[in-house]
Amino acid sequence: MKTNDCEINVNNISKEKIRQMEELKKDFPILNSNIVYLDSAATSQKPKQVIDEINKYYLEYCSNIGRGNYDWARKANKKVEETRKKVAKFINAKENEIIFTSGATDSSNLIAYSYMLNNLQNNDEIMLCKEDHKSTILPWMNLINILNKFKINIKEKEILIDVEGDYIEDNLISKINEKTKIVVLSHIHNVYGLEMEIEEIIPRIRIKNPNCKIVLDCSQSVGHINIDVKKLDVDFAYFSGHKMFAETGIGVCYIKSENIKEMKAYKVGGGKGKERISTNKASEVLESGTQNISGIISLGSAIDYINKIGIEDIEKYMLYLTRYLYEQLKSIPNIEFSKGIDKRSCIIGYGIITFKIEGIDSSELGEILSDYGICVRTGDFCKSGKSDDAIRVSLHVYNNKEDIDKLINIIKYILSEL
């Protein structure tokens, strides 16, 4: 049981703040309809403020960055570097530690091939959790297979998850030894919706093996809770912009300064595109080719939007809504919750609840809900391990109790007609 979670007060958000948060839906043009969007763990909707910045780039100064000596290019380049500063401040990093990627999957591959490919030796070990998102697992499995073909044997050790949905901490620590080169973790689980006790686990990893590198997937925590990479003490962290109100195709990879000069290019070509880093600026090697300029600009605007609301207020509102969603879901007959909020004996809530209803095909139910204008996710949710078909409801700041009530009422109506 996570102490921090149990100390949170579900009533720590005022009625006035709830009213203010409920007004945010007006910022999202696509939601000015009868559609109830409950799939934010897959991608978030985009506020008008972000859309306007994207349009402004294409309408007013569309150009490439790097070497243009005219006003449009200089403005685009300035916007990109301003966003790098915003990202660094947003996660408490240094500017030179921030790399723009196409998303979480790209970032995960970058770490695997730019860093670990050059630092793994025969009989080294990598720790992975097969219940985490595929983007945190498959790049490493692929790397292991490639190295095996060159007679370099890398051993995979599995991180287990308990019945509540947390990493089994003692078991994880017991598997770490001097051969452990990297541990790959998720901050908030994309199916179970739990904060994975990262602040408790990492110090224990550091004690057991100070040289082990720690990678953290922040895709579900970014834009929901405060992320401080220095406090978390991770070597690498990454996330996708599209889950925090930016457009698709843009992501961030954080690389701790001490690791930067160990990175080597795994994609080369135009742009910066050097093979080796000669300074302590990671982008010198790792941002080859034309960047997703509009995506980067949208990410800067998304951070502005989040900062204006306040990340602490977002976290409180997510707790408030998640607890309300959970209490309402419990009223549905024969509901079976996945690991996560239902298995915890304390008050938590990060906007994700997964469940199924006994005797009902979850995919079919999801399609019927779509007919009523309700968007949820069904399937295996990109888990790399075995997964039952289920429904995942995921929330963000543009949701409210009315959305949840509509979901519950329609599910009950559908069940009554079967």
Topology:
Blueprint: H1 3-7, H2 15-22, E1 36-37, H3 48-60, H4 71-90, E2 98-101, H5 104-115, E3 125-128, H6 134-149, E4 155-158, H7 169-174, E5 180-186, H8 198-208, E6 213-217, H9 229-232, E7 236-240, E8 251-255, H10 257-260, H11 283-286, H12 293-309, H13 311-329, E9 335-337, E10 352-357, H14 362-371, E11 374-375, E12 377-379, E13 390-394, H15 401-417
Please give a structural write-up.
By secondary structure, the protein is α/β, with parallel strands linked by helices. Helix content is 40%, strand content 13%. The chain is built from 15 helices and 13 strands. The protein has helices at residues 3-7, 15-22, 48-60, 71-90, 104-115, 134-149, 169-174, 198-208, 229-232, 257-260, 283-286, 293-309, 311-329, 362-371, 401-417, and strands spanning 36-37, 98-101, 125-128, 155-158, 180-186, 213-217, 236-240, 251-255, 335-337, 352-357, 374-375, 377-379, 390-394. The strands form three sheets. Strands 2-8-7-6-5-3-4 form a seven-stranded mixed β-sheet, sandwiched between helices. A four-stranded antiparallel β-sheet has the order 9-10-13-12, covered by helices on one side. Strands 1-11 form a two-stranded parallel sheet. β6 (213-217), α9 and β7 (236-240) form a beta-alpha-beta unit. α4 packs across α12 and α5 (104-115) runs parallel beside α6. The protein is globular and about 65 Å long. The two termini are 39 Å apart. The model is unreliable at 1-5 (pLDDT under 50).
